[in-house]
Amino acid sequence: MKALVWEGVNKLAVERVPDPEIRNDQDVIVKVTASTTCGSDLHLIGGYVPAMRAGDVIGHEFVGEVVEVGPGVRHRKVGERVVVCSFVGCGRCWYCANDLWSLCDNSNTNAGITQAMWGYEPGAVFGYSHAMGGLRGSHAEYVRVPFADYGAFPIPEGVDETSALFASDSVPTGWMGADLGGVGPGDVVAVWGCGAVGQMAARAAVLLGAEKVIAIDRIPERLAMARDVIGVETIDYTTTDVGAELRERTGGRGPDVCVEAVGMEAHTTGPEQLYDQAKTRLRMQTDRPAAVREAIYACRKGGSVFVLGVFGGVVDKFPLGALMNKGLTLRAAQMHGQRYIPMLLDRIAKGEISTRHLVTHEMPLDEAPRAYDLFKNKKDGCVRAVIRPAA
Amino acid sequence: MKRTVAVAAFVAGLGAAGARRVLSRAVGAEDVPNRWLTVTVNCPPESLAEGGRPEPLARLEPIAEIRITPAPGGRGTELAARLREPGPTGPVARATGDDPRQKVRSALREAKSLIETGEVMRPDAPPTTRSTPGGKLVELATRRAGGEGRL
Fold first, then answer.
1. Element (H, E) at B14
2. In chain B, which residues have their Cβ closer than 8 Å to the Cβ of A55?
3. What is the pTM of this model?
């Protein structure tokens, strides 16, 4: 089959790779019909995530049709249209049983690597390095889905494939940031990043009862989407002092909940950007945490900061004093998608969550490297490029 | 000059101690020669009663003591194993796959997964389609990963 493979830092190509096969009784094989670029892929492509090998298939946010089921699969059937959670959860370890699905004990076959890096291992994710399980990704004609009864969800009648696609990752990730960040009625919520995940976090905050939601970015078309489609206030951080603006818009208190949806390659303005870039180039820090720092400073006393953006290693100038002395709650997670996806598909079906506007570009698999060129370099207004392997 | 050398030696010593500490934390180096290695299984202790133990545990029994205790707070069952003979350990034994603790860690992980899910998840095959020097290092790490880590 054909697939988009990582060939080395900033090198992608479409190549032929072996077809996936049922490797465990609880696997299914899905024929991928749509798979989208995601900002977290850029960390892989740029070489920020260790344990990638030339030839690895990337992509983790996808929908498709079940074409083969293992003998231990109870609920999924050949022919079903499914949206597949980007993280793999076994459904029965203590973490899955407690709805902390991205922390599954049994899905990451390379647990020793991430235990050495982080103390304990998260679960596996499709197409996201051998440290995260080494599963092949979804920018391919077919993909193997382990523990499919727990991670592949039928797309409800009336929900089109493109709308359902983002229930694979962006929508549950954003929802989780607002939910586990503790957003409630009357809150003021600030969201750093207006990509798909940031927009979905902002929408989730609205649906969870926030009275005011303010989204922060620098890309005009993303700010416009947040304002016009999601219906929230926006701040362009390149023209506005974010801290001062948030104080003014919150009566001097600061946001009750701050959601960071940017990750390890954050951009900012002024000397902080130069400082972070120099430190990462000198390998004195692995990630650029500008948005996390700003969220911690901006958050109200006793408020909550949720880190949704992907980070891999260590950062410098982390404002631990602000965190401690302001009595903040800091929380983070890779996404516990299985906890939210059925509810979110219902909300998409009811029209409460809109995702189609995120698709600014669509193309066949053969053009997938161009999809990442557009997406990474924010060319042609690209917010998300959807790859259609069956086209 | 002497003072400069002394300060440099002190800083270097601190650096070496720090690096050793970080490395030891990362690879789970042993401060006790033959520590119990442990996983918690999301099941009642009866599921691990003798006679009903999964194959990886049975495989371990000739070389390791097995200890089974209820986890606090209803968090399942703590399953621990300790080698009867400690055998070689250290970076070389671990890199060459000669450290018997790797077998213990793999067996504990596999037993836990079998009890909880009925199977042990296998990686995709082949793991990738290209052989490069960097890839070989990752391959070595993944080959050992099932028996490594911080159990």
1. helix B2-27
2. 128-130, 135
3. 0.91
Number of H helices, E strands in chain A: 14, 18
The ipTM (two decimal places) reads 0.91
Chain A hits for B118, Cβ within 8 Å: 25-26, 72
pLDDT tens string, chain B, 151 residues long: the values are: 344 444 344 334 434 444 444 445 555 555 677 899 999 999 999 888 877 789 999 899 899 999 999 999 989 999 999 999 887 777 877 877 778 888 999 999 999 999 999 999 999 988 778 888 888 888 888 887 778 877 7
How far apart CA B144 and CA A45 sit, in angstroms, is: 25
Domain boundaries A2-169+335-388, corresponding CATH code: 3.90.180.10
Contact A134 B124 (CB under 8 A): yes
Both tokens assigned to B89 = 């350990």
SS3 A67: strand
Instruction: Among 3.40.190.80, 3.40.50.720, 3.30.300.20, 3.90.1150.10, name the CATH number for the domain at A171-332.
Output: 3.40.50.720
**Nearest-CA residue of chain B relative to A22?**
B124
Min Cα distance B150 → chain A (Å) is: 6
For residue A338 the two structure tokens come to: 């299985």
